[in-house]
Please model this.
Amino acid sequence: MIKLDEKNCMILNLLQENCRISLTEIAKKVELSVDSVKKRINKMIENDIFYPKIQLRPRNFGFNNIVEIKIRLHNYSENERNKFISYLKENPRVAEILCISGEWDLTIVIIAKDSLDLGKITSEIRNKFNKIIDDWRESLTTHVYKFEEYDMLKINKIINGG
Model:
């Protein structure tokens, strides 16, 4: 486990708020030099603490249906499961694929323009892999209140027993 100090936590919080924030602005807010901030960010990326990316808003470019699907598999070989996951990974409408524990095996997120588009996408997946899909439950995301947001100062206190 990698230990984070307060400055690194502050840097991570600032980057989560605005991934385009300048190094100069971060340096001022955390009271470090620009070079020090740059080195810390590079070291955190190198240690897989985070990876820089942007978060797209699919609804803004016509995909109004964002659907989470829970999938339970049955009677499958490792090869069949791998083919299914590869198919999902290659599908541009599948935004997320998570292997989960519990009642369900996978959670996927599909983006679709409307209900007809969603029906076409899900039917294609279900028909192609109907031999290994045991159960399938869909829920439409209507609003996001919080997504992948971590207060690193608070989490760091939890990690360190505080």
